[in-house]
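Extended Data, panel c. Modelled sequence:
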Amino acid sequence: MKVILFIVPVLLLAAGLLCRFKPAKDINSTFGYRTAKSKSSQENWDKAQQLMSKNLMIIGAAELVITIIAMAFTNGLNEQQYLIFMLIMVLVQALGAVLMIPMVESKL
């Protein structure tokens, strides 16, 4: 059950690495960081892909460290406390992923 908490950080790191080494070259509607600002010009598109990959790796690494540290404090929790802990961790991880959007948009 503890492995579940590592899925989001690992996926963010993997997506960041994938986008870093295989970025979406042309503006499209299926792959890459796609917002109105990023799709407004090829220059914005390229910059958005670079920023997104960097931010995904940073957020993924930070979430991985936070998760590892937080897991150290789960010993002795009963089932209900552990479920609450997991819910909080999932919310923290989701917040990190969502925060990437304004981080990229502000630099376009």
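Residues 2-25+35-105 form one domain. This feature is highlighted in the accompanying rendering.
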